[in-house]
Write a structure and sequence with these properties.
Blueprint lengths: L4 H33 L3 H14 L2 H4 L3 E8 L5 E3 H15 L1 E15 L3 E14 L2 E16 L2 E10 L5
Parallel strand pairs: 1-6
Antiparallel strand pairs: 1-2, 3-4, 4-5, 5-6
Pfam families: DUF4440
InterPro entries: DUF4440, NTF2-like_dom_sf
Protein name: Nuclear transport factor 2 family protein
Length: 162
């Protein structure tokens, strides 16, 4: 009626071994999938440009590190994700139909976990029914966090003269 304890332990050990083997196989598949989904710094640039074009904070926020700092070309500095969110939402509300383009990307540092680049930006849109536009130079610092690249610092300023 009852299996001897030695037989029950053998069954339990076999079950445990099979379960562990299955978990390891599933885990390997998950890790392999994660490797394929890891963004590069270049992917972050493309995603960020698209997110800004959407004029939706919900599209921008996943690309930002929680410790981010953004300095706009007017000199205003926004530190931490909450301040940055407030500034971006204000800009999205003020500038209608904004178009934002990035060009002349120059990578100064690109490693497995950190990247820095400079770029030229141009934007245009409408404020209170009037056409507005601007341009300048920027610097981004990016950090790889848990396999995903995020923007940790953005500094925008005027174009260099000359």
């Amino acid at each position: 009626m009852f299996k001897p304890i030695v037989e029950r332990l053998a069954d339990w050990n076999l079950s445990l071994i099979l379960w562990l083997a299955m978990m390891m196989a599933c885990g390997a598949g998950i890790l392999e999938a994660e490797k394929k989904n890891v963004m590069s710094p270049e992917d972050l640039v493309v995603a960020y440009e698209k997110a800004l074009a959407s004029q939706k904070w919900e599209a921008v926020e996943p690309l930002m590190d929680s410790r981010c700092t953004v300095t706009f070309s007017d000199g205003s500095v926004h530190r931490g994700i909450k301040e940055v969110e407030k500034a971006f939402r204000r800009n999205f509300a003020l500038i209608e139909d904004e178009k934002y383009a990035i060009s002349e990307l120059h990578w100064m540092v690109k490693s497995d976990g950190f990247a820095v680049c400079t770029f030229v930006f141009e934007w245009s849109g409408r404020m209170e029914g009037q056409a507005v536009a601007g341009s300048g130079r920027g610097t981004w610092s990016m950090l790889k966090d848990g396999g995903t690249w995020k923007l940790v610092a953005e500094h925008l300023g005027p174009k260099a003269e000359g």
